[in-house]
Specification:
By secondary structure, the chain is of the alpha/beta class. 30% of the residues lie in helices and 23% in strands. The protein starts with a strand and ends in a 7-residue tail after the last helix. Bound molecules: fe (ii) ion.
């Protein structure tokens, strides 16, 4: 496995780059906007393809690199389903898996620091975001934080992992880089409490000042969605009703770009073809199924995904590949469902 822990000294943030092999797919956890050039340089140096940029929660102390990484690499942005970020490409919930080629992380919902906090588990390690820090825990006094929920997330979930599990947090301000579950159980001062009430009292009496960047970072991190307007301005966007009117036409191919787990979880538009976003390129270039449908039958290719981000990027790629009928459903299956259109499971 390729594993890199990267540090932003201004905000004390750790970001993590993961991949299974040189030349393979990579994901990055909790990237910081100011460090995006550095990440992309490292991705090139290690000969990786960045396919997912993930935030453990909506950060208050730095501006996320998610939007910039998506714009520069066409990767997928990922957060938990509770997030207040306007648009991310993919939303996860408890029990899901976060996957790239050769790497699979178990997704667990660990609210308390914020109400959109997630942790990601691998067999030997856990990425705890700001839920569990090294000899500390994330503050719970803003962004719908809740010490009672955090106690449950830590004691009920994270500390149930094997003692040897490595703990990689999203922040450290003292210079520590990694810990273990066993070490934190024994030596984390916040965890030496006898009850949930004691923990709540402890957290409610910290009286911390707000993060310096909070008034800038929170609003910025809530507006990271890709502008889909340019795609619409070029006439390449359909609303849900327009798309619904095209179902069943044999000159139309509806293409679902999401992952299998998202289809199972949220349903799919009837009679749509499943072409996961990572395999898009091979399907729109010559010999690919979508290229063939366009060249042989002039079929209209209608992409959709969860919220319209992957599909907007796919429309641009398909148009660039000469598929002039490519368009997408603006707002994705989320908009489709809100319009009351049917899904199959
Ligand atoms: Fe945080």
């Amino acid at each position: 496995m390729i594993f890199r822990q990267l540090y932003d000294s201004v905000s004390g943030t750790y970001s993590y780059l993961l991949a299974s092999r040189p030349g393979g797919e990579a994901l990055i956890l909790d990237p910081v906007l100011e460090k995006v050039d550095r990440y992309l340089q490292l991705v090139r140096e290690l000969d990786l393809k960045l396919v997912k940029a993930v935030d453990t929660h909506l950060h208050a102390d730095h501006i996320t690199g998610l939007g910039a990484l998506r714009d520069r690499t066409h990767c997928i942005t990922v957060m938990g389903e509770q997030t207040k970020a306007d648009v991310v490409s993919m939303r996860l919930s408890d029990g899901d898996k976060l996957t790239i080629e050769g790497v699979s992380l178990d997704v667990i919902y660990t609210p308390g620091h914020t109400d959109d906090s997630y942790s990601f588990i691998m067999p030997d390690r856990v990425f705890t975001g700001d839920t569990l820090l090294i000899r500390g825990t994330g503050r719970t006094d803003f962004q719908n934080g809740d010490p009672r929920q955090q106690y449950e997330s830590i004691f009920g979930r994270l500390l149930k992992l094997p003692d040897a599990t490595l703990v990689y947090p999203a922040h450290d301000y003292k210079g520590d880089t990694v810990s273990t579950i066993g070490e934190e159980k024994a030596y984390n001062p916040r965890l030496q409490v006898k009850s949930v009430d004691e923990y709540v009292a402890l957290m409610n009496n910290l009286h911390l000042s707000n993060p310096k960047m909070m008034d800038v970072a929170v609003p910025a991190n809530m507006k990271i969605g890709m502008a889909q307007d340019e795609i619409a301005r070029r006439g390449w966007a359909l609303d849900a009703k327009q798309a619904a009117g095209m179902i069943g036409r044999d000159d139309v191919v509806l293409v679902d770009l999401r992952e299998t787990s998202e289809r199972e979880h949220h349903g799919a538009i009837p009679n749509s073809l499943h072409v996961p976003y990572p395999s898009l390129q091979q399907n729109i270039t010559s010999g690919g199924i979508l290229a063939q449908r366009f060249r042989a039958y002039r079929s209209t290719i209608v992409f959709y995904c969860a919220f319209g981000e992957r599909s907007a990027m796919a429309v641009q790629a398909a148009q660039d590949a000469g598929i002039t009928t490519a368009c997408h459903i603006q707002g994705g299956i989320d908009a489709w469902k809100k319009a009351g259109e049917p899904v199959t499971r």
